[in-house]
Amino acid sequence: MTDPFYDSNNIFAKILRGEIPSYRVYEDDNAIVFMDVMPQAPGHALVVPRAASRNMLDADPQTLSKVIPIVQKIARASKEAFDADGVTVVQFNEPAAGQSVFHLHFHVIPRHEGVPLKPHSGTMEDGAILAANAEKLKAALAEEL
Which of the residues 44, 103, 105, 107 is marked catalytic? Predict the structure, then answer.
């Protein structure tokens, strides 16, 4: 069931409705994937279900069952596209856990051995870099699908 406190005007809901531009990588009936504008590493992407859920605590299990395979595909494509040694997948629930956008989403971050994550600083990445990283991820995803 949807949390009665879900804010349909959160930034991800606006991106889902096309009200705010994003560097989209993938979309289907269940989710969209776009580049994080404040990446913690090159290739940092977000998987956002279309269903209105505040976070994993209130998400319909059907939503989760449809989104997790997409998270897996994006993780595999990220590892390939960014020649990563591994991939970090992160999902936050409520402010105490670090959640700042209250629409369920998964961070998929390519990782390289010995390279720490950059802080989520509030500084937006250059659009040309985000666009180029989106294209890299799209190309690898095409091979994954």
Answer: 105
